[in-house]
Amino acid sequence: MDESENQIILVDKPAGISSFGAVARVRRQLTEKFGHKVKVGHTGTLDPFATGLLILLTGKMTKKSNEFLKLDKVYEATLRLGYTSTTGDPEGEIQLYSNEGGPERGSARSSAGRPWRRAGRTRPELNTIESTLSSFVGKTKQQVPRFSAVKINGERAYKLARKGKNFETPTREIEIYSIEILEYNYPELKIRTHVSSGTYIRTLAEDIGKKLGTGAYLTSLRRTKIGNYDIKDAIINLC
């Protein structure tokens, strides 16, 4: 690690800790190294279940955080077709997706955390998935998910959602530069996508599932690039 207190630090965040938790760990390491508290901030969060590239800024570099927030990003994501999640990821209540167009009742998780029932009969062919994914490339409007850190009337959306409050989230203009299939073995679909800042991959997964008529949610998410910064150059692994 650079000897300066003013750094750009690339971190490979593991699953199970928040971005704020990653900041706290690095701050603790730097405090021990320099013998006094060092200012550390992140430049865009990753959900606790997600892994991959997190850019941290220290000391005077924290003043440049807005420059990093605007950078585009590359993700590798695994979608599970045939099911939906109330949060769009593994943290929510998982339900079997009905072929009639929505989640079926009575399909909650088993004690092992898995749905009781098998996925529906709809199994999209590879060429159908390819054409569906290509339809998402370009500029579009995306609705911010209810389980997000966006503030609604001064309170985080995910806190309102957990309270069962009724509210609307804003829409944002985003751009998907590319999206490709890495692996497909129904119900698992692994993709790589290059997107603009502000894009929610959870929402993208749900939208893909809706268009396929199968439903979908994210089972894993890994960020591999932010602008020209690459995960292979991460110097800190918090595992």
CATH superfamily of the largest domain: Pseudouridine synthase
Low-confidence spans = 105-120
Radius of gyration: 19 Å
How many DSSP E strands? 15
Helix % is 10-25%
Report the total helices: 5
Shape: globular
What is the name of the CATH class of the largest domain?
A: Alpha Beta
Instruction: Give the oligomeric state of the chains in this entry, treating copies of one chain as homo and distinct chains as hetero.
Output: single chain
Q: Into which percentage range does the β-strand content fall?
A: 35-45%
Structural class designation: alpha+beta
Give a short overview.
The chain has 239 residues and is α+β, with helices and mostly antiparallel strands. The chain is built from five helices and 15 strands.
Q: What can you see in these coordinates?
A:
This protein has 239 residues and is of the alpha+beta class. It folds into two domains: 8-70 and 228-237, no CATH class; 73-226, 2-Layer Sandwich (Pseudouridine synthase), CATH 3.30.2350. Helices cover 20% and strands 35% of the residues. The chain has helices spanning 19-34, 65-69, 126-134, 157-162, 201-212; strands at 8-13, 40-42, 51-58, 73-81, 83-85, 94-98, 102-103, 138-143, 151-152, 155-156, 171-185, 188-195, 216-226, 229-230, 236-237. The strands form three sheets. Strands 1, 2, 3, 4, 8, 11, 12, 13, 14 and 15 form a ten-stranded mixed beta sheet that branches. A three-stranded antiparallel beta sheet has the order 5-6-7, with no helix packed on it. A two-stranded antiparallel ribbon has the order 9-10. The longest helix has 16 residues, at 19-34. The two termini are 17 Å apart. The model is unreliable at 105-120 (pLDDT under 50).
